[in-house]
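Notes from the pairing session

We agreed to fold both candidates in a single pass and log them together. This is the raw record for the first candidate, unedited. Please don't reformat it; downstream parsing expects exactly this layout.

Candidate A
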Amino acid sequence: MVNCDYDLRFLSINPAHAGAAHDSYIWRMSRVKTELERCYNEGDRNSWLLGYSGYPLQPWLMVPFQNAAPNSPEDRYNQRHALARNCIERCNGVLKTRFRCLLSKRTLRYDPETVGDIATACAVLHNMCIAANVEPPPINNVEPENW
């Protein structure tokens, strides 16, 4: 599970389960959920996370409406939600252009824990590149379906 901000900086990364657990389980066990829940319980009503439909709706977690009727307010919300959530797709895409070893067609021949450490290190280096205004390589050599 990864989270990023609008500037495509990773805010958190949890590679612990590496596809071996359902997203809702990872969410329930995450420090991000615990922290957002704590902030909400202490009165913060101005912090939200955008999640996809696999996550449960919570006061601090905004997810799309299921089966929204076309042109309804719910459908318009879903469209805007998707636009805003697109930053995580872009963030992952930029990460993979910087660190091509993370592309889906590449294989990191290490144990899952080491692969998680490599992904985390790449995310940290990615954030350092953003802080230093280092432009990512051109994206034209990376196919979107590999993100």
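Candidate B (folded immediately after A)
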Amino acid sequence: MDNNILSLSLTITQSYGYLYLIHEESQSLDVFKNFKAEVENQLSNKIKAVRFDREVERRNRTLKDMVRSMINHSTLLESLWGKAVKIIVYILNRVPSKAVAKSPYELWTSKKPSIRHLHVWGCPIEARPYKPNEKKLDSRIVSCYFVGYFERSRGFKFYDPSTRSFFETVNAKFSEDVELKIVDTLEVLPTQVMEPIQVHEEIYKDRSRGILGLLQKAYIDKVLSRFGMSNCVPGETSVAKGDKFSLHQCLKNELEKKDMERFPYALVIGSLMYAQVCTRPDIAYIVGMLGRYLSNPEIVGYSDSDFVGCLDSKRSTLGYIFMLAGGEVSWKSVKQTLIASSTMEIEFIACYEASNHGIWLRNFITQLRIVDGIEKPLRINCDNKATELYYKNNQSSSKSKHIDIKFLVVKKEFIVLKYQLNT
């Protein structure tokens, strides 16, 4: 078969392929005549035109690539490439393509092809060939390889490497799922455990259910002992019916934070999360719910201003900075737009600029969904007691009548608890 020349004829309209293996190019005309007679007899139509274009060349290249892969995957000789390419064309005629949803076989014959009989080319087979001169004590089974299909029947073609011959039969047992035998020539190191080892998680086995798993009871007991909860009364459920959680329940002042340092809340939640992920799905809800309230981040602002820092324009320079979760997130320093007559007035203007930016910053962070929500009022710190008293006093005095009305907006925001001012 080494001298075969690959010749492929295609029906371009439906991509159904015919394959013929010939020894010489001079046989191409006779092969085409046989092909023409067979196709015209099947379709009851005449071939009107014959095209020789790149379609055949591309198809031949595809077939060669597939043959190369099939031979490398199997253990058969390269001289059997002719059998491989025939089975490739056989399969391609029965599978759809990206261009057409139906297979070429279905388009050609108007019948849906069956693929139940398809097998891996080159797989080992135990087959029983027909032997007319077979004796009673002769072996009836031959170890061979699958190489093709019958064209118009349900049989298969096999190759017997012992006799280097081909035969056809329907009596065969395919061994496509047999695991590969690995011959390990390396020295096997001893794996015997000479002393007991300590396993932190208990392993349990249920042969009837086919289960091998972990039991973290020892880990849970260790967590309870670590946080002094071994003597707690157990409950039927992880959370009582009707319990609700809110950010308003978080710590509200420094005194509460100082008192809460005695309870390692975050460590308890983190320890339970390990058990939740591994073996305790029943506590997933409550652990995830409590984990949302590990902290309640708030925005804290600081504002300040000098007094007549610019000797040329007699104007003051203000500055403010905002912190979230202990880190700086926004800051600014700018010269004031007016000339103030007192330190209270310049500090008041600085707080105005800081409060405007702080309210926008809180809304912006909430929209980014960095945190679930910032429930606490915006807290701004300044270093002028007179400014704080003027904020909290809803009355006007002769000393503050000249302050622009736009700066008085912050007093209204203070009244509706959008922020609070501390010194």
